[in-house]
Specification:
Strand order of the largest sheet: 3-2-7-11-15-19-23-27-31-35-39-43-47-51-55
Shape: rod-shaped
Helix content: 10-25%
Strand content: 15-25%
Structural class: alpha/beta
Distance between the termini: 92 Å
Number of strands: 57
Number of helices: 8
Length: about 575
């Protein structure tokens, strides 16, 4: 009897007698063998000829060494890629298997042609070895397929296949290995698909694939391009610890459940353009050395990029036109050595950019932050807000939600955002823009809405609430309008001119307020005298050539002197800030 032993199933015993002078039967004999005899004995097995003691089960091909090309029946007359007929020197197999079929540990020395084959029971290809191309396109694995530990030395085609479930687990010390190109285009996995620790040496395409269950590519290695364009994941997409040496493409993919790319590595380009993440997207400690494109992506439940590293210089990490609809989006501890492009991105949930390094800068033109956003401890080489650079100008009483093309709706977020922008502008040496960013930062921090939110979060005492509007009015009158919080000397000089002119007009229109004789109210001498008195009073010089008459005049004079003293003192604030920076 044949002495071949299975490494997977130690109880397996081959029933076929061994060849003369050999320990193995015609099926398990390694190396070259007589193809006609192999085909003859195989047909006996398939047709059930012979005694049970001398013939294996109908569809049990465990450990068989197929010496030449293998075809299913209705394709046996097809031609190979070289144009040679395979009719006379091929191994014929049925196209429909009603029972469980086992090719466990089988070795295929030639091309395998099994298109449109139907397996009604589980198809077992565990630890099989394919020395030449294998074609399974259009086949149906109705109860699933097991390719654990398989080795495909050349191309393999599973396009348009149906799998109830498919496993490509490592078996023992042997990992599923694909040494040639791999195609799963338009395949349908009704259940789970496991490609754990798989090794793909050439290009892999899963274009248009539908994963009805979990798709697990954990710890897999892709040496060439991997494409998942238009793929649909009805359950979790697991790519933990996966490595993509030549880039990966998930453009237009749809992931219904959670997506896990934690600790994954991409050595060139990763494209997730227009990908729809319907639940959580995990990219913790994700590393990429090229362009990371997430253009027009939709994240329904937030995204986690904590600890992610984008290493390649002279490239971009593109989040342009992305939509983060719900849940928290976290980039804490991330490092982006390339430009982070967030133009026209929308964040509806909380966003955390804590301790992020934007080494290549960040672009924020047209972006919207509708909830809280934390930029604490983050650093950026540059900040691009578009063509509308920050400027100090008359902005009205209330805090605007959109400035320089960036919309921020959360009151506490505005202060932290402009603090981050200001520090970046200061590091760049853009003094005017830094002053404007500081102005916006102070406006946001002193607004009543900001105080109310700080009280709710426990950052301020409750007694601040009734006095919030009072302090806001004082801040508005004494610091914001007058000096733009020490950022604008021009505004301070304009305030001086406004106060001097206002009081001078009052003295000119009511000549009796001053001890002097006046011809007519609208005479030039009257207005010059009034402005002279207002200027000397504002500057607290007090020359004594004119004096107020009556209580109203004395009150106005005292008020202008006090305002003049305060506004003159603010000049020290503005000049001092200019020197300090």
């Amino acid at each position: 009897m044949c002495k071949w032993e299975s490494e997977i199933d130690k109880s397996y015993k081959c029933r076929v007698p061994s060849l003369p002078g050999s320990d193995f039967c015609i099926f398990h004999e390694p190396g070259k063998k007589e193809c006609a005899l192999f085909q003859e004995e195989l047909q006996k097995q398939l047709q059930g000829h012979g005694t049970d003691e001398e013939v294996n089960e109908h569809f049990d091909f465990t450990g068989y060494v197929f010496p030449t090309s293998t075809f299913v029946e209705d394709t046996s007359k097809s031609e190979t890629q070289s144009g040679e007929s395979e009719t006379d020197r091929s191994v014929l197999l049925p196209q429909i298997y009603q029972e469980r079929v086992s090719f466990r540990e089988a070795v295929f020395m030639g091309t395998v042609w099994m298109p449109d084959t139907t397996f009604h029971q589980v198809a077992d290809f565990r630890r099989a070895t394919f020395y030449y191309a294998a074609y399974f396109h259009g086949s149906h694995f109705k109860e699933g397929a097991q390719f654990d530990g398989c080795k495909f030395r050349q191309s393999v085609d599973f396009s348009n296949c149906y799998f109830l479930q498919a496993t490509f687990y490592p078996r023992g010390y042997q990992q599923p290995t694909f040494l040639g190109p791999v195609r799963f285009d338009s395949a349908y996995f009704e259940g789970s698909a496991y490609f754990l620790h798989a090794r793909f040496r050439k290009r892999v395409t899963f274009i248009g694939v539908h994963f009805g269950g979990t798709a697990d590519f954990g710890n897999s290695r892709f040496q060439r391009e991997a494409s998942f364009e238009n793929a649909v994941f009805d359950r979790n997409a697991e790519f933990r610890l996966a490595q993509f040496r030549r880039g990966v493409n998930f453009s237009d993919a749809e992931i219904t459940w959670d997506a896990y790319f934690n600790h994954a590595r991409v050595h060139t380009t990763a494209s997730f353009a227009r990908t729809h993440f319907r639940r959580a997207a995990q990219f913790k400690d994700f590393q990429i050395r090229g362009i990371g494109s997430f253009i027009q992506c939709t994240f329904n439940c937030g995204a986690d990029f904590q600890g992610a590293v984008f290493q390649q210089h002279r490239a971009s990490s593109l989040l342009r036109n992305c939509r983060f609809l719900n849940g928290e989006t976290a980039f804490s501890g991330s490092k982006l050595a390339l430009e982070a492009d967030l133009r026209n991105a929308t964040f509806k949930g909380p966003v955390v950019f804590r301790n992020v390094q934007f080494i290549g800068g960040i672009r924020l033109e047209g972006s919207s932050f509708l909830s809280s956003t934390d930029f604490a401890l983050s650093r950026a080489s540059t900040v691009d807000l578009g063509f509308r650079r920050p400027t100090i100008k008359w902005i009205g009483l209330w805090t605007k939600r959109e400035r320089c093309g960036t919309a921020i709706f959360h009151p506490l977020t505005t202060e932290g955002f402009w603090h981050f922008v200001r520090r970046t502008f200061e590091a760049e040496g853009r003094r005017e823009s830094a002053d404007a960013a500081y102005y916006y930062e102070r406006i946001a921090g002193k607004s009543p809405r900001s105080v109310v939110h700080k009280i709710k979060l426990g950052q301020e005492s409750a007694w601040h609430k009734p006095t919030a509007y009072l302090f806001w009015l004082l801040d508005l009158a004494l610091l914001r309008w007058t000096t733009a919080y020490g950022a604008s000397m021009l505004r301070l000089i304009a305030t001086w001119a406004f106060v001097i002119g206002s009081f001078g007009a009052a003295y000119a229109l009511a000549p009796k307020l001053l001890h002097r004789s006046v011809g007519t109210v609208w005479s030039l001498s009257n207005w010059v005298t009034a402005l002279h008195y207002s200027t000397t009073t504002f500057s607290t010089l007090g020359l004594g050539d004119l004096r107020p008459e009556g209580l109203i005049a004395k009150g106005l004079t005292s008020l202008e002197a006090v305002l003049g003293g305060l506004l003159m003192a603010l000049a020290v604030l503005v000049i001092g800030r200019k020197f300090m920076r």
